[in-house]
Design goal:
Layout: H1 5-11, H2 13-30, H3 32-37, H4 42-76, H5 83-102, H6 110-129, H7 144-148
Helix pairs in contact: 1-2, 2-4, 4-5, 4-6
Length: 155
């Protein structure tokens, strides 16, 4: 656990940005005169700080969608499996844990990200494979653990 908020910046950027946004909200609530006195545009600062953390979250979500889409294509079109799909799956399996290692507060959020990421992935897979959307189940057939497991290749 980081000793200071400054340490958190280095060990969990997404968590740091959330804590900073909350601190700015508290400042605006509890000491609006101070924010005014030192000319802080608290509302916009909160937005910017939250956006910084959201960009990290969005990166994980986007990579998860891409990973799930390629796993779906891998499962549903075995005759078209190739180096490109394999490389994309492997790349996302390397990148997502790297982002999570630098932002551990995002790891517990992965299960909540899964349904929306799957919904986007199944639409993308349907578009790219010319298979009907109904070929891909509405609920994600993969767990987070399977999706990130380098040894898991759906048949």
């Amino acid at each position: 656990m980081p000793d200071t908020i400054s340490d958190l910046y280095d060990t969990d950027y997404a968590g740091w940005s959330e804590r900073q946004a909350e601190a700015l909200r508290r400042l605006a609530r509890e000491h609006p005169e101070l924010a005014y006195e030192i000319a802080l545009d608290v509302g916009h600062l909160i937005e910017e700080v939250e956006d910084m953390g959201r960009s990290t979250t969005t990166s994980v979500e986007t990579r998860l969608e891409l990973l799930l889409m390629h796993l779906a294509k891998w499962r549903h079109q075995p005759e078209r499996r190739g180096k490109s799909w394999r490389n994309t799956i492997r790349e996302q399996r390397r990148r997502i844990p790297r982002i999570l290692a630098k932002n551990p507060s995002l790891r517990p959020r992965l299960p909540a990200m899964l349904p929306e990421a799957w919904e986007e992935a199944r639409h993308g897979a349907a578009d790219e494979t010319d298979l009907d959307l109904s070929a891909f189940p509405e609920a994600c057939p993969f767990t987070i653990e399977q999706a990130l497991d380098e040894g898991f290749w759906p048949d």
